[in-house]
Design brief:
The chain is mostly helical. The chain has one domain. The chain has 4 helices and no strands. The N and C termini lie far apart (58 Å). 1% of the residues are buried. The mean pLDDT is 81. It is found in: Cell membrane.
């Protein structure tokens, strides 16, 4: 049965990750979330809180979009449709935080 599945795949199509890879990604996402929570509760990190949380959330967004939404295996245009708005959103958030004196 798996031979039939392999033969029906088109030449440009890539194999998607299996359960082991998805569990590994889930562990990485969990660790990043734990780091985010830890950074929030460390008083010495207060001056760097916003940039660190923005970077960590961007990494989590990228992992979710690449693997769970299968953008890593799709055309690059779809990746750009996620990356460009994320960068614009980050710049807007940073600008608003600076404008209102919270950073």
């Amino acid at each position: 049965m798996s031979e039939h599945h392999e033969s029906t795949r088109s030449p440009g199509e890539h194999a998607h990750p299996g359960a082991k890879e998805y569990l590994g990604i889930a562990v990485v996402l969990t660790v990043i979330t734990a780091v985010e929570v830890a950074v929030y509760y460390v008083p010495a990190m207060r001056p760097m809180l916003v940039p660190v949380l923005l970077v960590l959330s961007a990494v989590k967004f990228s992992l979710v979009a690449m693997f769970y939404m299968h953008l890593k295996f799709d055309h690059r245009l779809f990746s750009w449709l996620f990356v460009v708005p994320m960068i614009l959103m980050s710049l807007i958030v940073i600008g608003l935080l600076r404008l209102f004196g919270h950073w």
